[in-house]
Amino acid sequence: MTNSDTSTRILKKSSRTVWPIYLFLTIFVIIGGGCLLYAPVKAVKTLVFIRKAAVTTGTVEDLVAKRGSKSTTYAPSVTFNTPDGRLIRFVSQISGSQSAYNVGQRLEVYYDPANEGNAEIKGFIPLWMPVIIFSVLGLAFSGIGGGMIYAIRRSVKEAEQKEALLQNGMLEWETEPDWQSATIRSVTGREATFFWLFAAVWNVIAQPTGFICLNSAIYEGNRLASIGLMFPLVGFWLLWEAARRTLQIRIFGEIQLRMDPFPASIGGEAGGTIDLPIHFSSGNVFAVSLSCEQVIRHRDGNRKELIWQEGGRAAATLGPAGTRIAFRVAVPATEAPSSDSHLWTVRITAELPGLDLDRSFVIPVIREQSPRTSRLNVPLAHDLMPSEELPAGTVQVKGQGERLLLRYPCRRNLKTGLLCAFFSGWFLGGVSIFVFNSPGVGFVILPIFGMIGVGLLLYAVWLLSNSLQVTVEAGRLSVMRRLFGIPINSSSIETALVRRVEIVKFGARGTGTSAKLIYRIGADCADGTTITLGDGVEGRAVAVEIARQLRQVCGLSGPTAPTR
Fold it and tell me: For this UniProt entry, which segments traverse the membrane (predicted)?
């Protein structure tokens, strides 16, 4: 089946199935629009009420139960006396699982002198929470519905344009709008826009939610509500990321990558130059990485998995705009070319005065009979990385002659360990608070969350406390694993029995373009056993260098075995 036949089939299928989605999302937009229209009306009514209201002191007479389908909330019933001595009673429109008010409590009350029954407790939550709720619901429903309609419509339009170009004989990669020339724009601008929109929608929902949870935790004694404070914290992080990306654009401008060759090819090279509007300094170090991500599609969404990555340094020289950087990276012959299921991304980073540089470019990588190489007169990025420069946080190397000592400290897994410990505390804390407040409830769900929390805690302890020492001397290879500094496992073998040393992809740390592949280094021995000579190693270049030194002292010739 040709590309044209496939696109036509997908397009016809989309046209038959997209209109029910439009209808469903339109309902979201209508509901959201109605809430947004009513929210300012309610706000004006509240302002008018406050302006003409009189203030008096009332007493909480009772807590009125409001039973829902799954829970019961309580609203304070308040009484107060008018100037002419009449007793007025009203029930506040705000209720909670545990009321913030006590029977007999004295508090200030707003009431309308022309209609004493129109009254409310004087406070931010009783007066303004309905406005906040309608605003949040309106923004959430209309934003989600409208945004998804726009995204679907845009994807359908792009599919139509791509289909027309394919029918005219263009190759699939040539139909991408961003790949019409060798000049590739950075995705940072689009990422900044996405973060601002996502942060706006998230914070509109999360900040009022956090305020309600904080009020419930402090004034109502509901400790379980403190878990909800996670949502505004995530909102603050989203705002920080959006501001950081926007500041990158303002300082460095619209940075573009001029590819050489264009496009890159499987089994060949990816390379190019970038002009930066910064003062040239020989002390600035620019790191470059080429990554391949596989897009795994599910019914509930897509997931990207980092499957290959190569890193090194770019060469920096004086350029017309200030500094010009150039790089070349070898593309493996075993990976797949650019497609809807495989994305190739170049990332350039540098620690610069004022603000660090961090830009990513999605580039085309195709498969050809004769792989293309770059015409740039610069070494490969991997070759520009000093071989002796290994991060001390990952491995500490001491070697002399035929003796080599490798120490992998506990902190090599610091970020992952702290993240696991954080989520473990979140799970276990939530379970503890829930059990404390509602004993005897959730016999099925709570043990599951508790086991997840315990599992994450044990894994965090392992990551943060295990270290590994590898020693090669006098013809023997010795390995010692320690936990909290206490030896728990050791092995030793003659170096003559080591058949090969290889690096194996173990996973990835981080997300998106900032993700780093994690490797394990192992030795295959003549007796059929495999010995771990390193784990938690971040970055292929570091893993390859460690394996090279191990192969050298073990007397093994030839290149490092390919990664599995």
Answer: 21-41, 127-152, 194-218, 224-240, 416-436, 442-464
Does the pLDDT at position 487 exceed 50? yes
Of 382, 384, 374, 312, which Cα lies nearest the Cα of 349? 312
**What are the structure tokens assigned to 122, written together?**
């004087």
Tell how far CA 53 is from the center of its chain. Answer: 49
Amino acid making up residue 353: P
Locate 152 and state its tokens: 């679907």
* DSSP string covering 24-71: HHHHHHHHHHHHHHHHHHHHHHHHHHHHH-EEEEEEEEEEEEEE-SS-
Tokens at 207, concatenated: 């900040």
CA 92, CA 98: separation in Å to the nearest integer? 14
Looking at the DSSP bridge assignments, the partners of residue 91 are: 77
Q: Higher model confidence: residue 476 or residue 433?
A: 476
Is residue 537 within 8 A of residue 543, CB to CB? The reply is yes
369, containing H or E segment: none
Listed in sequence order, the residues at least 6 apart from 483 whose beta carbon sits closer than 8 Å to its beta carbon are 462, 465, 466
User: Does the CA dihedral 34-40-45-49 come out positive or negative?
Assistant: positive
Residue 112, phi then psi, degrees to nearest 5? -85, 120
CB count within 10 Å of CB 543 equals 26
What 3-state DSSP class applies to 220? Answer: coil
Q: What is the DSSP string of 77-123?
A: EEEEE-TTS-EEEEE-S--BSS-SS-TT-EEEEEEETTEEEEEEESS
Q: In whole angstroms, what is the distance from residue 111 CA to residue 56 CA?
A: 8
Structure-block tokens of residue 548? 């090279």
SS3 21: helix
In this prediction, residue 99 has a pLDDT band, given cuts at 50, 70 and 90, of low
- The DSSP code for 562 is P
The closest alpha carbon to 119, from 73, 59, 41, belongs to 59
Amino acid (one-letter) located at 247? L
Query: What average pLDDT score do residues 84-109 get?
Result: 83
Question: Is it true that the peptide bond before 364 is cis, omega within 30 degrees of 0?
Answer: no
pLDDT in tens, 325-358: 999 999 999 999 998 889 999 999 988 877 788 8
